[in-house]
Amino acid sequence: MPCLVTLSHTPYGLTSAKESLDIALVLAAFEQQPALLFIDDGVLQLLPTVKSPASHKHIGKIMSALDMYDINHLWVEQESLQKLGLTPDQLSLPVKVLPRSDIAQLCAQYDQHMVF
Fold first, then answer.
1. Please, which residues bridge with residue 74 across strands?
2. Nearest CA among 63, 59, 65, 61 for reference residue 29
3. Is residue 55 classed exposed, middle or buried when 0-12, 13-18 and 19+ CB atoms within 10 A define those classes?
4. Which of 32-41, 55-64, 93-102 has the lowest mean pLDDT?
5. Is 90 helix (H, G, I), strand (E, B) or coil?
6. Mean pLDDT throughout 57-85?
7. Over 70: is that where the pLDDT of 70 sits?
8. pLDDT band at 8; cut points 50, 70, 90
9. Which of 28, 67, 68, 96 is the most buried (most CB within 10 A)?
10. Are strands 96-98 and 74-77 parallel, antiparallel or unpaired?
11. Cα distances (Å, whole numbers) of residue 12 to 26, 82, 98, 99
12. Domains of the chain
C-alpha cells in the first residue's frame, strides 16, 4: 500500500523532521512503499550535512539510509525551492521537482498521505 509522506518542517528546533523520517523508515520496513514530498522549510532537510547545534542530532544519517530502505521516490515542491533560493543540484539527494499545481495529482496516486 503506497504512502506519501509530506515533510514541511525545518530539520532543527523541533523533533518533527526526525520523527517523520523515522515513520517513513518504519513504513518501508513493513513494505508500505513510502514516497517523500518536501515542501516549505522541509526542503532544508535535503541540504548537505552541516554542523548541527549540540542539542539536535543531524538527520543526514537518516537521509542517507533512505536508499537502503528503498525509499527512492523523492519530490520537492518547485515554489519552496525558489522561495529558499535553492536549486536541485544543491540538495544532498536526487529529487524530482514538482510545481505546486501538480501536488494534488501526486497525492491522488497514493492510498495514504501523512503530513508532518
1. 36
2. 65
3. exposed
4. 55-64
5. helix
6. 92
7. yes
8. very high
9. 28
10. parallel
11. 21, 21, 24, 26
12. 3-115 (3.40.1260.10)
How far is the C-alpha of 96 from the C-alpha of 79, rounded, in Å? 13
Set of cell numbers at residue 114:
501523512
Q: Which amino acid is at 27?
A: L
The amino acid sitting at 8 is: S
d(CA 66, CA 80): 22
Is residue 57's pLDDT more than 90?
no
DSSP for 41-57, written as a single string: GGGGGGSPP-PPPTTS-
Res. 48: pLDDT tops 90: no
